[in-house]
Predict the 3D structure of the following.
Amino acid sequence: MAKLIDGKAFAEGLRGRIAKAVAELKAGQGFTPGLAVVLVGEDPASKVYVANKAKQTVEVGMNSWEYKLPAETPEAEVLALVEKLNADPAVHGILVQLPLPKHIDSTKVLTAISPAKDVDGFHVVNVGKLSTGQDSLVPCTPVGSVMLARDVLGKLDGLEAVVIGRSNIVGKPVAQLLLAENCTVTIAHSRTKDLPAVVRRADLVIAAVGRPEMVKGDWLKPGACVIDVGINRIERDGKGKLVGDCDFASCEKVAGSITPVPGGVGPMTIACLLYNTVKAACAAKGIRQPEM
Ligand code: NDP
């Protein structure tokens, strides 16, 4: 049976180290890192997510600002708010919650965020820096996924890694991070031929597809590490349930280690957002980032 990778516990530990770093910055440098989150509209999942972000930001001792705008807010007003937050020295990180209502151009809004405050790591400047090996703000879920893989496998050097999914939010940045860790990386997608055979090569599988329980145990190399990024809501036995992109029951019999859903990659995302905010704050102040 595979070792269970406890993302909840890892994220809790990381938040503890972030809280310690924030306390050190307050005492030693006299400033408090701060994160502003902008939510436009009433998407229920986004509301829960934004409330969790605010709660955890305060829990680690950082400043938190929430801007909740009605769904019909004109694009120009959202852009004006982003400009205001860009200019505010107390705000070190800005996150605009996606998805935005249809009348707002997400790319335009994300590009308006100052790259130095882009704690989601979606700005083209940060994407470019990541792909050219420069220090940058990196998207949270990919960073969290690689942290978990490193925690269980140690050095990733030379491993065969297969990333399933090529989105800008997960697949591509996770592949860049694994390349930087000296993995041999394959990126699979919906046009990949014989996906099971491709996945069977992998010492490390990162699944970011959005298809419930797609990856089966007999696709895996025995002993592989499986990081399941997928979050899919399904109906089973008349009840709602969250499942990943990997079929946990069959995969845990073959894998060496595996993340559960929920409780694997999910909790890492907000912890990494807080990490990025401390990183952005230290860069803005021109000081060394404390150990986290
Ligand atoms: P996208 O829909 O943007 O991308 C999905 C990718 O999967 C695409 O590249 C697509 O290929 C590929 N794909 C789709 N079907 C297949 C298939 N049958 N075989 C192989 N590849 C396929 O999703 P995201 O990257 O945004 O998210 C992926 C999953 O991760 C979702 O379940 C999402 O909920 C979850 N997620 C979890 C987060 C967290 O833990 N906090 C954060 C973000 C996402 P193609 O490009 O060819 O269409």
Notes: The two ends are 32 Å apart (CA to CA). Residues 141, 164-167, 169-171, 188-192, 195, 208-211, 229-232, 265-266, 269 surround NDP (CB under 6 Å). The first strand starts at residue 3 and ends at 4.
